[in-house]
Each structure stands twice: as C-alpha cells, then as structure tokens.
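Sequence dictates fold. Next comes a concrete instance:
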Amino acid sequence: MSNLSALTIYYSHDEPDLKQHKAIAEGNEIKVITKNIQEEKLTSRQLFLLSTNYKEGLMGLIDKNSKNYKENLENVELDQDDLLSFLVSNPKTLKQPIVEYQNEVKICTNPRDILKFSSITPKINGYNHAKNLK
C-alpha cells in the first residue's frame, strides 16, 4: 500500500479541501502522498487492505448517499470480490477522501480530521494553518 512514514490521501478530482488536508499534514511535518483514484485506480487488493485498516470495514468505505450506490448496490447482495470489483470500477461510490497513515485509515471529510490519527501529535491546531497552504 502506501509508504508507512507518509500520509496518503486517496481522492477523486473534485476534492475541494485537498490543499487544506495537505497543509495540515505538512504543518505537522508529515510527508503527504496524494492519489487521484479516478486517474490511478485502486486494485481490489489495495481496496481490501484499506478496508481491513478502517474501523468500519469495507461497507463503511461506501458512500450510501452516492448515486452509484443507490442505482447499483442498494438492496443488492454481492460477495466481497464482486463488491471490490464494483468499487474499483466506480471509485466515486467510496467516501472520500480516504486517508491512510501508519496502518490506520480514516475518512477525513474535515481537513482537521488528519489530526485524529493516533500516531500524530499536533504541532499546529488545524485552525491556524493558512501559512501552510500551497
């Protein structure tokens, strides 16, 4: 998966807060890797590994409010392999951004959620990070 010393942000191209996510992590001296999952598709194996490190598992990574979910998955039972294949082909069905750091995975819809990783001791508080925006 990702480099253990780096924080990896998995997003699609319409992630408006990506710069803020990066600024908070970099302000806390954490290397950031960004992966646009629309352009650089996750494999089924990568998605499975992310889900095993997410407290809510694979189903917790799915955005049940997304159009794709409602049209294709709601009230449908798929085995894990078929579900992984669907999600790999339809990454907008996933909650985003998915953030991975040191074998811990979180959905960080708020940029300050980066500071909730258990191995991060904040050096900046998430509110005074404007100088870190690039």
About this structure: The chain has five helices and four strands.
